[in-house]
Write a structure and sequence with these properties.
With 308 residues, the protein is mainly β. Helices cover 12% and strands 59% of the residues.
Length: 308
């Protein structure tokens, strides 16, 4: 390559370099050359306020855990009925009500302003319930074991409104809609002098609910805070469908039913809840309907919120 061509080539590269640099300087409002230059008067820099600077960022991440106190609906009615039935002189029962459930959750929050945000979250609610009952009569000794496993996955949309914020503390209210996916397992074991038998049931139910509550933020910094939250969730599961695995009745698909059964021995009605392939019908049954397990109730959680 000749000297003239090399000079021309270098001139072209320098020209392109300064054109690119000038374009960049025009976007930022500054002109960078050989050293620090004055502001371009035609391209004054525009100062943009950082979104949600008071809370530390536009995007927030929130993780929490705690306890929920649930109504339980037909499930606790079932336990109360069994307690009444197996509370005779030679009988025994040890079966607690459902009561509390463990609750965990995580949420991504988009802060539109320092005081208003919208979050999308998911969680996991779980509890095992174990009961045992039977008769200690020497003539007719029998033992029953019941184990239920509850799990719910809520997918939530949540509106956050903050108020009364200080450097150390913040208060907010929240509320939204949930889509809840419930799962229930049941293992029933019968033991007597003649042998034992085990029946397994698993059913699922989905429902739409809602929630609302209040929270207190304890600010460690502008970006990190400890959150104490109290809320109420409405979640009523009305239709449970699934399957049964039993050596006595075989395997089949069905729905969970709640009904009252008349004891021929005590001549009183007591609640029952089992999976049936079709609507149960008998002269000993009354008030037969699909089971409703109401997991509505208050919850108390503690969590960490980080704003980016």
């Amino acid at each position: 390559m000749g000297i003239k061509n090399q000079k021309l080539y270098a001139l072209v590269l320098i020209t392109i370099f300064f054109l690119v640099l000038s374009s960049f300087a025009g976007e930022t409002g500054y002109l960078h050359a050989s050293g620090k230059q004055e502001l371009n008067q035609k391209e004054k820099p525009v100062l943009v306020k950082e979104p949600s600077a008071k809370k530390g960022g536009l995007i927030g991440f929130y993780i929490k855990g705690g306890l929920g106190f649930v109504d339980s609906g037909d499930f606790n009615n079932l336990i109360q009925g069994y307690r009444n039935y197996w509370s005779r002189t030679e009988d025994y029962i040890n079966w607690p009500e459902l009561g509390m459930m463990m609750e965990f959750g995580a949420e991504i929050i988009l802060n539109f302003t320092p005081n208003v945000g919208f979050g999308i979250g998911a969680g996991y609610i779980t509890k095992n319930n174990i009961g045992e009952y039977g008769s200690q009569d020497p003539v007719f000794q029998v033992d029953y074991d019941r184990e239920y496993g509850f799990s719910v996955i809520p997918i939530s949309g949540n509106l956050h409104i903050r108020f009364l914020s200080t450097r150390l503390f913040g208060f907010s209210i929240h509320g939204g809609v949930d889509y809840l996916m419930g799962n229930l397992t049941h293992t029933y074991t019968f033991q007597s002098g003649s042998g034992s038998s085990t029946r397994k049931e698993e059913v699922k139910s989905n429902t739409v609910g809602y929630h609302g509550g209040i929270s207190i933020d304890i600010n460690f910094s502008s970006r990190v805070s400890l959150v104490l939250e109290g809320s109420y969730r409405f979640a009523d599961f009305k239709e449970w469908k699934g399957s049964v695995d039993s050596p006595d009745t075989g395997n089949f698909d069905g729905e969970l039913y709640y009904y009252e059964y008349e004891s021929a021995y005590y001549e009183e009605y007591y609640p029952r809840m089992w999976v049936w392939s079709s609507t149960p019908s008998s002269s000993y049954y009354r008030n037969v309907r699909l089971a409703r397990i109401n997991l509505s109730g208050f919850s108390s959680t503690i969590g960490i919120k980080i704003n980016f």
